[in-house]
Amino acid sequence: MTLRAGIVGCGGISRSHATAYANLEGVTLAALCDINPAALNTRADEYGVPNRYTDYEEMFRKETLDVVSVCTHAPLHAPVAIAAAKAGLNVLSEKPLSIDLQTADQMIAACKESGVRLAVSHQYRFTPIFRHAKEWIESGRLGELRCIREVGKGREAGFELMEMGVHYFDEMDFFMEGIEWIHAQITYQGHEVGAEDIMHSSALCKTDRRDNGMVAGDTMMVHLGGKHGASGLIELYRRESTQGWMMGPHILGDSGQLMIKPNPQTGIDEMWHCPFDVSFAAHTPQWERVTLAKEAFLIDGKPWPDRHSIWSVRDMVNAIRDNQQPELGGANALTSLECVSAVYESHFTGARAYLPLRDRRHPLVKRLADHPKTKDG
Ligand SMILES: NC(=O)c1ccc[n+]([C@@H]2O[C@H](COP(=O)([O-])OP(=O)(O)OC[C@H]3O[C@@H](n4cnc5c(N)ncnc54)[C@H](O)[C@@H]3O)[C@@H](O)[C@H]2O)c1
After folding, report:
1. Does residue 341 form part of some domain?
2. Whose CA is closest to atom 27 on ligand 1?
3. Are 256 and 143 in contact (CB under 8 A)?
4. How far apart are CA 338 and CA 53, in angstroms?
5. Where in the sequence is the domain holding 186, given as residue range(s)?
6. Is 9 in the pocket of ligand 1 (CB under 6 A)?
7. What is the pLDDT of residues 264-314, one digit of tens each?
């Protein structure tokens, strides 16, 4: 049976989803939707999609689809996903799942009620290099896992948390098999973030158009506790040059380290190994590149060597075919967003925030409501 896929939101990331559906065997990209006719027609022409809509409710009503990718900005993920669920469609939402846990819970409830799947598209964990690194950790090749470190690309931390931070939480959740708590410190223009520093993402980050709801802080240090005792460290701060190759985990065990970073020239991930637990510029045994056989990167006979969305799209497509849950479905869909809320909760309480959070309200919106005189962006 050929699965029929649709996409809502025809901007940047939609190309990656469209390429995935167009290349996976047994899937057809049947319909696209965008409120902007120019964006809609550009993407639809590129992939030869005849069925075009400017209203997603109409697309869900008129088309017989099996799965829809939600590729709009974050505040629209929940309304689009809930409408898709009510129409009986499986939903693959771009990250972040939503802008707060309340609306994310509503997405999950709507999908559960309709008996459809909901997953969030953190594609990194599905790539062969990340799977290979996990095998190394599990086999004890790095000794006992101690720490995983990540840095942001250089946008203001409150914004970056919703863009790259959620990916990093998902990586850490994958490698550590669960995140238990978060402890975070946030500053803005050199002072500790208070309720008066809460603002809309467009006010905080002027260099990126994406809407990430209410955010706070230009600098963050996030420390998290993994299920088996390892730590995660995420540093997000504004820097002049923003470079894609800065992203990627540095994994430290007590007898070795792995680094997965995109090559600055090609943007394609490389995995490097050092057989020692710490590194010093001049005194450490050499880092060596770990390469995988070319066959590891093939999907339906074609190579996908980078962090392409096809890896998470394929997981959803396989789940539908095999009548299973996608790996990032169910409660797993929530983890990375739980971590975002926990960052703010921890900063404002000065204590560890344990997952899952009991208070499902947006931790910043809640604090703004308590301080009505502070700015709202
Ligand atoms: N997984 C990844 O690696 C990755 C990478 C980039 C972006 N993203 C995520 O994808 C999402 C979209 O980002 P982007 O860079 O593609 O944004 P974008 O601004 O390029 O595209 C968003 C599109 O949504 C359309 N849109 C707005 N309202 C709509 C509505 N009511 N119905 C239909 N379409 C509507 C806009 O017209 C626009 O074309 C964000 O949540 C972002 O964080 C994920």
Report:
1. no
2. 72
3. yes
4. 33
5. 125-303
6. yes
7. 899 899 999 999 998 887 777 789 999 999 999 999 999 998 999 999 999
